[in-house]
Amino acid sequence: DVKVTQSSRYLVKRTGEKVFLECVQDMDHENMFWYRQDPGLGLRLIYFSYDVKMKEKGDIPEGYSVSREKKERFSLILESASTNQTSMYLCASNQAPTDTQYFGPGTRLTVL
Amino acid sequence: GQSLEQPSEVTAVEGAIVQINCTYQTSGFYGLSWYQQHDGGAPTFLSYNALDGLEETGRFSSFLSRSDSYGYLLLQELQMKDSASYFCAVRLTGGGNKLTFGTGTQLKVEL
Fold it and tell me: Considering CB atoms only, which of B87, B97, B100 is closest to A96?
C-alpha cells in the first residue's frame, strides 16, 4: 500500500511566522503535490513537483514556496504566515502514467 | 478557464441509490476520476473513466459522456458509511500530471 505521511495533523502558528509542512511518500513516486482545502472551494493546487529539485506553480502559489531535495520528501513553506492561510493542507503523490493520486492525512493549520 | 461543477450537498436514505453529477467546461482531458473523503480524512481514489460509458466497481459506478461534458458517480445500496464528500477530477491535456478537482459534493445518508 502506498503511504503518504504528513508531519503534523494540527498546527497553530502566529502571523508572520515561517511555517514548514513536511510530506513523505514511500512508493518512489515521481510526482508530488500540495493542495489546500477550504469549505466550498474544493481542493486547490498550490505547487507540484515532478522530480527532485523540480517544481511548478499550481493555481494558488502566492505566499507559498516548496522544496524537494529528495524524491520521497516534498516540503511546503509559508515564508510569513498570514491569517488567510488558515486551512487544511493536503499532500499527494502519484506515478505517471496513471492519474490516481494518493493523499496524506492532511495538516490543519491555524494562523492566529 | 477550466471548471468542474458539482452539487454542494445531496441527502438520501439508507438502501437507496444516489447519483452525484459532475459537469465540466474544459478543452480536453485524459479521463474523469472520483475521490471520496470522509470528515477529517484523506481523499481516496474511487473510480476512473478514460472512455465514455459506465465503469462498475461493486456498489459504485461512474459514467462519462464527453459529448455532453458530463459525468456522474452512482452509489447503490447506500450505507451510513457512504456519508462523505465526493470529488470529481480531471487531468487536463497539456497540464502535465496535475489534477483539477471539482468543488465537491457532501453526501448525507439518513436512516
Answer: B97
pLDDT in tens, B40-64: 899 999 999 999 999 998 999 999 9
Residue A83 dihedral angles phi and psi, to the nearest 5°: -60, -30
Per CB-CB distance under 8 Å, the chain B contacts of A103 are 42-44
Look at residue B111 and tell me whether its pLDDT is greater than 70: yes
Q: From start to end of B1-111, where are the E strands?
A: 3-5, 9-13, 18-25, 29-37, 44-49, 53-57, 60-65, 70-75, 84-92, 100-101, 105-110
Assign residue A99 a region: left if phi > 0, alpha if psi is -120 to 50, beta otherwise?
Answer: alpha
Instruction: Give B97's contacts in chain A (Cβ within 8 Å).
Output: 31, 48, 50, 94, 96
**Bridge partner residues of B33 (DSSP):** B48, B89
Distance from CA of A103 to the nearest CA of B (A): 6
The dihedral sign for the CA sequence A28, A29, A30, A36: negative
Kindly give the pairing relationship between strand B105-110 and strand B100-101.
unpaired
Q: Does residue A12 contact residue A87 with C-beta atoms inside 8 Å?
A: no
Say yes or no: B51 contacts chain A, CB-CB below 8 A: no
If DSSP codes are grouped into helix, strand and coil, which group holds residue A99? coil
Give the pLDDT confidence of B27-44 residue by residue, as tens digits: 788 899 999 999 989 999
